[in-house]
Amino acid sequence: MPPILSNARLLAIAILSLGLLACQSETRLGSNAESQAAERPMPLLLISIDGFRHDYFDLAETPALDRLIDGGFKADSLHHVFPTKTFPTHYTVVTGRHPGTHGVVANSMWDPVRDQRFSLGNRDAVGDGYWYQAGEPIWVTAERQGMTAATFFWPGSEARINRIRPTYWKPYAGATPHAERIDQVLAWFDLPDAERPDLVTLYFSTVDSMGHRHGPRADAVRDAIIDVDSHLQDLLNGLDARGLLGNMHIIIVSDHGMSRVDFDQYIMLDEYLDLSRVTVSDWGPAAQIWATDMSAEEIFTALDGVHPNLRVWKRDDIPPRYRFGSHHRVPDVLAEADLEWMISNRPHMAGRSRFSLLGMHGWDPALLEMHGIALMHGPAFAPQTRAPAIRSIDLYALMTHLLGLEPADHEGSLAPFLPYLDADQPLQPETMALSCEQGEITLQLRRGPRHLALHHGQEVHVLDQADEHGQRYEEVDLLVDLGTDPIRVRMDEREWNDCLVVDNV
Ligand code: AMP
Ligand code: ZN
Ligand code: ZN
């Protein structure tokens, strides 16, 4: 379990950070901005490029993203939460809670208490705060503490959550031209001080849509990246012209990666289960199944072991690493397919073209193909800073810190970021190759000052430093102990006690 910071500790950190940011502002802003900046933290702009996989940077020239990367912090990738779907993962970024806690457990969900369904296309549901109220998004934290928030789209931002909406917000309209989004964000920053937002969100969906339609890394994905990047360049130029770039924080994330899917790799649930006797609230890489006319035990028995590319768990047996256990919207039975495999049913697939869907996401967040991106820019981050994979669950702690806010209860940690925030030198990760089982298994470690990413085959896990000396790293069901000789590594049920460093970069 990552340390959950107590409110008192976070408050102390927040107060410290206010001091730090105020100092930085004073040295970098002109004199008439000085007195005001001393009491008001610099604005934070949070941008999401939906479905931008961690490795898409080499697909296209991205001068705007490069400008931020050169001038700031880039993690190898962003480890998300289960399920790796737009609404659950975006809501985790802004709340610091797992989907099994914040309650947005899928893009399509069923609420057994209200006996209601939620789906992305259902405007009433998307705008209804009931679905989001188990997490406090950062715009609510900001507004509650007297700041002003503005959202040009973000899952949850249209709803009154515990009675609070961003001061400025937009009903979701996917066709809104990108230029209009950029112009509006710049216009928000042009507002008089009393109205100007402290926190702004911005969202782009086209990289994801092209990934679904044409497959990851397709030409159409590259074109979508080029288009988004060119609009980001307009945004950066606009911020620069206003003297803001360098005097604000910008965080760019994506909400998950993308994997290819294969028309011949669909598992049809109706071959094993009478679908009239259960409710399936979500399909795809994972299926969320409810016991209606059958018990959870009967559903489990009907699906367990029936297909080599399918795993199935009753709610209480879902791997702890998924942290998908507690909310009443977590289904009775969860079935998950292997990467590149999908769960569907014969009526749904009847007549579908094999080319109608070439990319998908939603699988285990540890799978590298599900990892997104994380870039940060602004006075808190030294240029050219590089980090191992980081976790999206920790971003709420970071963002409230940057804004000097007292965070609401959350499940992330600021700890992995603290060394970066304090550094006046660009930090770089250390890379170590480990060989275990007499060379049969190789693992790669990417070590930052307070956390470590463990790369193993298709999986990348993020572990927190668990001792003072930076020898022991832990997460649920994961351990890397560099202090033992030979080195000890545990991943889920797999354990290696004989690992040796074969390469240290
Ligand atoms: P996904 O396939 O999980 O990546 O979902 C991506 C889709 O979610 C986008 O193409 C949009 O259609 C939809 N979407 C994103 N943000 C919102 C929003 N705030 N409200 C409604 N739908 C949204
Ligand atoms: Zn998405
Ligand atoms: Zn998508």
Could you give a quick summary of the protein structure above?
The protein has about 500 residues and is α+β, with helices and mostly antiparallel strands. About 25% of the residues lie in helices and about 25% in strands.
Q: Provide the number of structural domains.
A: 3
| Most strands sheet | 8 strands, mixed
Q: What structural class do the secondary elements suggest?
A: alpha+beta
Q: Got a strand count?
A: 28
N-to-C terminal Cα separation, in Å? 29 Å
Global geometry = globular
Give the CATH superfamily of the largest domain: Alkaline Phosphatase, subunit A
Contiguous uncertain segments of 5+ residues: 1-35
Whole-angstrom Rg: 23 Å
Bound compounds: adenosine monophosphate, zinc ion
Summed up, the helix count is 14
Helical proportion, percent range: 25-40%
CATH-defined topology of the largest domain = Alkaline Phosphatase, subunit A
Question: Helices, strands, pairings?
Answer:
Blueprint: H1 7-28, H2 31-39, E1 44-49, H3 63-70, E2 73-75, E3 78-79, H4 86-95, H5 99-102, E4 109-111, E5 116-118, H6 123-126, H7 138-144, E6 149-152, E7 168-169, H8 178-190, E8 199-204, H9 206-214, H10 219-241, E9 249-253, E10 259-260, E11 266-268, E12 278-282, E13 286-291, H11 296-303, E14 310-314, E15 333-337, E16 342-344, H12 346-349, E17 359-360, E18 374-377, E19 385-387, E20 390-391, H13 395-403, H14 418-422, E21 430-436, E22 441-447, E23 451-456, E24 459-465, E25 472-475, E26 478-481, E27 487-491, E28 494-504
Parallel strand pairs: 1-8, 1-9, 2-19, 3-20, 6-7, 6-8, 11-16
Antiparallel strand pairs: 2-18, 4-5, 9-18, 10-17, 12-13, 13-15, 14-15, 21-22, 21-28, 22-23, 23-24, 24-25, 25-26, 26-27, 27-28
Helix pairs in contact: 1-2, 1-13, 8-10, 9-10
The protein binds adenosine monophosphate and zinc ion (2 copies).
